[in-house]
Protein: HAD family acid phosphatase
Amino acid sequence: MSGKWSSLVKLAAAAAIGATVASGATALAGSDDATAARSKEPANIGQVKLDVKAYYGDYVDAAGKHHYSDTSRFVKDTNRIVSDAKRYLQQSLGRVKNPAIVLDVDDTSEVTYGWEADNDFGFDPVKQQQAIDNGTFVANKPVLELANWAAQHGVQVYFLTGRNEFQGPQSLKNLANEGFPAPAGAFFKPKTTAPDYLPCGLTCTTVQYKSGTRAHIEATGAKIVLNLGDQFSDLEGGHALRPVKLPNPMYYLP
Structure:
């Protein structure tokens, strides 16, 4: 998650997936001609939000806070994807030297859904900072299990996130408190001085920053078997044997 994206970008992305998340295609009333003429219109924002909530199995606790359900389609999809990734990792252990996995944080290692729904799916960097400071986000259980299994089997675990360097210490504390293993390395987007391995400096796109950092990890001798992220920009640019896209219909980060 990055402070640079806006609720407008999120809603535009959500509209793009609104026709397929949870309840299927959004119906448009009227004749066939009217339907065809309106087929390029964005989805209704209210319906998109309802579809996203349905996908996560939204429920509200006594304090009025939103949560996702362990029986939701989100959890089922995540379990299936991570299970497939784990099998691939298992099969790779005997043939890959110095295996490693790279994990994004927001909506990969941690799930931000409850906080997103509490904030009506809008982004406020001040509120995000408060959530990080307070340890509001919860571990993504299948990813947590994968990370610990990997560490127990000699696989190096790295975190690579779009959170900025000033959010690093508290982010790592939260991940440790949630039960994630101590990482071989953790990378946060630079705000003051960029490392030499990022020639794009402080102006890197997400793809440049993340692929360049993965290249740096591999330059140390590690071989990245799995690269897990919820955004396509987490995965593009190579330097991983298998990119693993996790579901996230809430926002889009280029």
Remarks:
- The radius of gyration is 19 Å.
